[in-house]
Design goal:
The chain is mostly helical and 57 residues long. It has helices at residues 3-33, 38-47. The protein contains 2 helices and no strands. The longest helix has 31 residues, at 3-33.
Length: 57
């Protein structure tokens, strides 16, 4: 297998199965965020920037 045909094979794999794998992972991550019980964790994470101690001065 020459370098050019190896490149073509890897490019074909990335264009088909690689794209499908990224789509499945994306849908999985979105599903993970919207699963039951995550609302409280997301709210706590969003408000965490306001939990710092106030600086005197």
């Amino acid at each position: 297998m020459s370098d050019h045909s190896l490149y073509d094979a890897l490019r074909h794999f990335a264009d088909s199965w690689g794209l499908l794998a990224m789509l499945v992972m994306f849908v999985g991550f979105i599903g993970w965020l919207f699963r039951p019980g995550m609302q409280e964790k997301q709210h706590r994470a969003a408000m965490s920037i306001f939990d710092e101690d106030e600086v005197d001065g």
